[in-house]
Amino acid sequence: YLGVFLTGAYQEILGDLHNLFGDTNAIHVALSGDGDWHYEQVIHGE
Asked: What is the pLDDT along the chain (46 residues), one digit of tens a residue?
């Protein structure tokens, strides 16, 4: 199972530098041809 949370415009609002939460973390996930997945990049927030 794969869950995707806080995507799109809502995530952009939460990640706004002028917001109470500051910049949020993000992870880029890649899916291979055989169905395996791995993290490509982790972007740390504040």
From this structure: 777 665 666 666 666 666 666 777 788 999 998 989 999 999 887 7
Give the single-character DSSP code of 24: P
Q: Looking at the domain assignment, is residue 14 inside a domain?
A: yes
Residue 32 belongs to domain spanning: 9-43
Q: pTM of the entire structure?
A: 0.50
Q: 19 near 10, Cβ under 8 Å?
A: no
Both tokens of residue 3?
Answer: 């869950």
The residue count of the chain comes to: 46
Number of domains composing the chain: 1
Residues 6+ apart with CB under 8 A from 44: 25
